[in-house]
Each structure stands twice: as structure tokens, then as C-alpha cells.
Design a protein that fits this description.
By secondary structure, this protein is of the alpha+beta class. It contains 9 helices and 17 strands. The longest helix has 16 residues. A 12-stranded antiparallel sheet has the order 1-5-6-7-4-12-15-14-13-11-10-8.
Length: 337
């Protein structure tokens, strides 16, 4: 495929902006980027997009009073499709989200037992109670993003029931996907942690089946996300009433919108930290090096290597006869030395 570019113009009156306010501002939801990328990929390939991977949300798109042009760029990356969602102004290009798309078939995971999951989650809240707590955090959701009707939770997992009218304009409805991400708040409810967090990155989003009107969302702290200095990763599966997996997030990380977690949060567990780049200009300092020559004798005997060393007055090393790949490996090891 050739590079393709799509442009959308948002005024802030769209439901996915008007119903998604962060600290009083209309902010394009992280879930909306996934649908933008998926829809663009499907148009270009004429195939079903089955996976989005290595997705990172770098900075939010805010639309408050002034219409905003949002560009979606697709380009080939091996067998995958690269995707970059950005805006542009006088200062240059601002990349807001990037990742890769795939049309490869996905293996559908086994079914879940919803009743068994519920029995493992001792705490419960109804939808209105959840959205009251979200508002305290700074997240003000309108009706199209208030999908959670009930949530069951513990300190490591949560299960929510999501009910929203089906919108035929989307395959991945932003309101439904955002409600699934909201389910990650369950462990925070259990710990009485009311920190505002937003999507930062996700390793995979796998699309298996069409999303119905009523969905169960099972979110849990994944193994790689435990004890990482306050940074938690989640696996999320969207299920139907029979426990069949419809869509899955692998290793989703949520972070505060103001940046990394506070020093106080990171101190108790020093197994992981987050760093940002800060480049400074500095003049290069010349470093004196002593170059040495080494002659590699491929397939020759050690005796011949010794004679060449004496004749040429330089180091000669014999590499015994072997397959081309073995030659390469042995030569590479010597170069590294």
C-alpha cells in the first residue's frame, strides 16, 4: 500500500467530545483514536482490521471553541500498517497517537464464567455512584459515555455491565470502549484511590466479534503490571452474556494526565521508574584511539596463519572451515572484541 492521509474536522459539538470532559475541557477520548485508526485501515485495505498494537497516546486533542483538524496518516510497516494521528499548527506537527494495524486472523480466547468471576469480587457499586466518583476525579461524562450500570470489584480486578444504544456509525463505539476503560477504576475504588488517570499505551487491542448492546467487561491487573513503582498495567476483555470474548486489551497502562506519578508514589517500590528525555547541546570531546589490524583467515590452518603473521608482521587469526552462518557468527564475535 501507499501512504494514505485522512482529515477530520471537529467542532467540539460531537457527542464523543461534548460527552467527554476532562477538567472542564472537551478532550478527544483515547478510545476514539482506536476507532479512527481502525476505520481508516479498513477503508484502505478493504479488509477487516483485527488488531491494533503498540498504541501510545502522546498528548490529548482539545477542542474548546475553535474547530480542530485531526489528521490520520497510514503507511506500510512490513506486513503491518503504521498509523499516526496528529494535528498541525504554526509551530509544526503535534503527534497525539501512534501505533500499528493488522488484518491477520486472531485466535479467539476461551469463554469466561461470568458467575464465577462475580463471586470472586466482594465489592459492588451502581452506575450513578461510579460517575459521581469520576466527576470528583475531574472526568465529567455525558450520556453516551455513561455505559456502566453496575460494577463488581476487588483490589486486583473488576467486572462491569455496560449498556449503551448501538451506534451503527462505529464498529468500535468510543462510548462503549471508554466505558470498558472506566472499568479499570474498580481496584482504585477498593483502595480508595481517586487519582485521575488516562490511557497512556496498550500493547494489543484484539478485535474478535461484533459488539452488542449489552457487554460485560472484565478488567484485571496483569502480571507484568504488578509492583512497578505505582504504574499498573491491565488486561481487559469485553464479553457477551455467554462469556464469549468480543474484544481484548493487553497490557493497557493508565497514567495521570499531568505526567508520571509523583515521587511519593514511586518511592515505596523502586523496581520501575519512568523517565523523559531532556537533550542539551554539548561539544564533542575527541577521544584518542589506537587502531589495530586483524586478518581473518577463513578455512586456513593454524600453521598457515602463523606463517602469514610472520610474513605480514600483523595479527592473523585462523577461522576453521564451517558453514557460512558459522563464519559470520565467529567473525562478528571477533569484531565485537
Amino acid at each position: 500500500m501507499k501512504e494514505q492521509l485522512f482529515t477530520s474536522i471537529y467542532t467540539g459539538k460531537e457527542s464523543f467530545l461534548a460527552d467527554h470532559k476532562v477538567r472542564g475541557e472537551n478532550v478527544l477520548p483515547g478510545a476514539a483514536y482506536l476507532e479512527l485508526a481502525r476505520a481508516a485501515g479498513a477503508l484502505v485495505t478493504k479488509k477487516k482490521i483485527t488488531q491494533l498494537k503498540d498504541v501510545s497516546w502522546r498528548r490529548p486533542v482539545r477542542v474548546n471553541g475553535t474547530p480542530q483538524k485531526v489528521h490520520t496518516r497510514l503507511y506500510p510497516v512490513g506486513e503491518d500498517i503504521g498509523c499516526e494521528i496528529y494535528t498541525q499548527n504554526e509551530a509544526g506537527i503535534n503527534v497525539h497517537c501512534e501505533g500499528k494495524l493488522s488484518t491477520a486472523s486472531q485466535t479467539i480466547p476461551g469463554n469466561y464464567d461470568l458467575a464465577s468471576i462475580r463471586q470472586q469480587l466482594p465489592c459492588e457499586k451502581d452506575g450513578p455512584a461510579c460517575y459521581d466518583l469520576f466527576r470528583i476525579k475531574g472526568l465529567d461524562y455525558g450520556s453516551s459515555f455513561r455505559g456502566i450500570t453496575s460494577i463488581y470489584y476487588s483490589e486486583t480486578a473488576s467486572l462491569s455491565c455496560i449498556k449503551l444504544p448501538k451506534d451503527k456509525a462505529y464498529e468500535l463505539s468510543p462510548g462503549v470502549l471508554d466505558s470498558a476503560l472506566q472499568t479499570c477504576a474498580g481496584p482504585g475504588f477498593a483502595k480508595e484511590d481517586h487519582t485521575l488517570v488516562l490511557p497512556y499505551c496498550v500493547r494489543e487491542v484484539n478485535i474478535y466479534r461484533e459488539l452488542p448492546d449489552v457487554i460485560w467487561c472484565y478488567a484485571r491487573v496483569c502480571g507484568s503490571g504488578k509492583n512497578n513503582g505505582g504504574v499498573v498495567a491491565y488486561d481487559i476483555d469485553l464479553l457477551n452474556a455467554h462469556g464469549e470474548v468480543l474484544l481484548g486489551f493487553k497490557e493497557l497502562i493508565l497514567l495521570p494526565p499531568d505526567g508520571v506519578l509523583t515521587t511519593k508514589q514511586l518511592i515505596p517500590d523502586k523496581t520501575a521508574c519512568l523517565f523523559s528525555n531532556s537533550w542539551e547541546d554539548k561539544k564533542a570531546t575527541p577521544v584518542a584511539t589506537v587502531a589495530t589490524q586483524l586478518l581473518l583467515l577463513a578455512g586456513g590452518s593454524a600453521d598457515l596463519a602463523d606463517k602469514l603473521k610472520e610474513k605480514l608482521a600483523q595479527e592473523v587469526l585462523s577461522v576453521p572451515e564451517s558453514a557460512p552462518v558459522d563464519y559470520f557468527v565467529k567473525v562478528l564475535e571477533k569484531v565485537k572484541e
